[in-house]
Amino acid sequence: MRGKCQYRLSCWHCLGYTLSMLIAWVQLFFTKQKVKPMWKGYHFEPKMLSMLISYGLPSFIMNALGSFMVNFVNVFLVEYSDTAVAFFGAYFKVQQLIVMTVNGLIQGCLPIMRFNYRAKKERRLWQTYKTGTFIATIIMIAGTVLILCFPDIILSLFSASKKNACIRRIGNAHSVAGLCVQRHIHNDSNL
Question: Cα–Cα distance between 69 and 35 in angstroms, integer?
Fold first, then answer.
């Protein structure tokens, strides 16, 4: 029964990706766009491919490391109990929610900072850096406070048991990370 259910989920997963790809192609090729892809005169440039790989490889590695880490930790946790695996999964999802929000903020700040660096507008570059880092610190501290004050509510989202309330202790990691980022800003502002 379990194998049949996993097969159905895999089919729906693949169907979702395929449907998304088809909708994107229809939008790209059959609707009015400001930039129209043209295949006439296209030629493959290996240098361009190597540049694309060099830009995308660090992000790929960071995403892959998270997946590998979860799988390897689960291999060890399954020896203790299924509850430990469930708790780690719940904690990792909550942690990723907070960290990915900060990561999105950083990804939004980087183009602004790159533009201002290239335009030699140092004041705007540092203003963006300090503002982005301050907001990232606030998000990390808010995440810590939520984890510390409401662990039962957060864990109830994952149907976790009450004995997993040790999320409060793990939540302290977010406050340490937030304080480290804030300290880094303070040190850089003295330059």
Answer: 40
CA distances from 178 to 45, 98, 187, 189 (A): 43, 11, 14, 17
For 189, the 3-state DSSP assignment is helix
Q: What are 16-32's pLDDT values in tens digits?
A: 889 999 998 888 888 88
Q: Which pair of tokens denotes residue 172?
A: 């302290």
User: Tokens standing for 173?
Assistant: 């990691």
Distances (CA, A) of 160 to 66, 78, 79, 153, 157: 22, 16, 19, 10, 8
Q: How far apart are CA 189 and CA 131, in angstroms?
A: 12
Residue matched to tokens 């040190």 = 187
Residues 135-164: pLDDT tens digits?
Answer: 999 998 998 888 888 887 877 776 655 544
Q: Are 147 and 94 a contacting pair, CB within 8 Å?
A: yes
d(CA 4, CA 170): 36
Give Cβ neighbours of residue 131 (< 8 Å, ≥ 6 apart). Answer: none
pLDDT at residue 128 above 90? Answer: yes
CA distances to 16, 42, 72, 87, 88 from 79, in Å: 34, 55, 12, 14, 13
* pTM, entire model: 0.55
